[in-house]
Write a structure and sequence with these properties.
single chain; 105 residues; mainly alpha; Arc Repressor Mutant, subunit A; three-stranded antiparallel beta sheet; 4 helices; 63% helix
Length: 105
């Protein structure tokens, strides 16, 4: 049932290496997305909720207008305007016109 201890160790090390490569790719992708979204913050007021929306978008795998409204404590219309600003740097993944969700892919 179990193989040689050296074979199992080699498989474990290989799995670790694959996981490290995947993690590095994810980190690079999210870092690039953060840089692109940070450009949108330039010239904004300090009180703008756009920075919080960027952080939320980077930290969550899926972002909706309702989630933004709830987390940022703004109206749904305000959340839609914020999403309109950052949506070009993200991908809409639902394919619907209502109840849309965005993600950084």
């Amino acid at each position: 049932m179990s193989g040689e201890p050296t074979d199992e160790a080699l498989e474990f090390i290989t799995a670790l290496a694959v996981g490290a490569v995947d993690g590095e790719r994810l980190h690079d992708r999210l870092s690039l997305a953060r840089q692109l979204l940070a450009r949108k913050l330039q010239g904004r007021r300090r009180t703008s909720r756009l920075g919080e929306a960027v952080g939320l978008s980077i930290g969550r795998p899926l972002v909706t207008v309702a989630l933004l409204a709830k987390e940022l404590k703004v109206s749904k219309q305000g959340a839609q305007l914020i999403m309109k600003e950052i949506a070009p740097a993200m991908r809409e993944i639902t394919g619907q016109t209502s109840y849309r969700a965005w993600a950084i892919l």
